[in-house]
Amino acid sequence: MTTVTNTNTSTDYWDTALAVIFSLVVGALGGLVLLGTGWLLLNTSVGTTVASALALTEKTPWYFTRSAGTVAYLLLAGSTIWGLLLSTKLIKDTIPAALSLAMHNILSWLAIVLTGLHALALLWDSYYTYTLSDLTIPFIGPYKPGWVGLGIIGFYLMFLTSVSFNFRKQIGQKRWRQLHYATFGVYILATVHGVMAGTDSGNLGMQVLYWASGLIVLFLTNFRLLAGKVGRE
What we know:
- The protein has helices at 2-43, 45-53, 60-87, 97-120, 132-136, 145-163, 168-171, 173-180, 182-197, 204-232.
- It has 233 residues and is an all-alpha fold.
- It has 2 domains: 1-55; 57-232, Up-down Bundle (Four Helix Bundle (Hemerythrin (Met), subunit A)).
């Protein structure tokens, strides 16, 4: 019995390591592809021709970062709401647990990827001059550094909580749940970042998105707290 347990534990560690390495490699390759594509478009005659054919202009990175940021927020809000639905067991009897957890994890990683693209696209912005340091170190960027810095911190927390999915057995279920509470901080930081730093935050559609997702998260959080209180009585 001991040998089987050790073998299973070793397998779990390898699966976890491979999942983390795969995630990091995919993210790094995606960033390199974006950086390389941008360099080719800006510094080669072929790139200039392609950019012209695709009607890409100096404003394209700005439009892209805004759209990527909006999609990233939608994915983050969806992941947060889905996680709350899982914790309140409202979908327990309708969707298999494995599928529900996979959906939550996928939404989280997609939010990370889109957030990364949202940030990297700023390297080609023609109005503000961004560097990798500006995008990775909070509170030093050229545009609203305070509010943008909160978004950077939120990104790091989002990455940490997503990676923690692969370490639940090693961390322990109780500690993993405590760590996972940081997802509330991620959602709040992303919302504040979007409202205060987003140039589209004054649009009716974005205001509806912020208010609707916020009210749903608030409702499900209160429902979870009340359901837990009733369950303990």
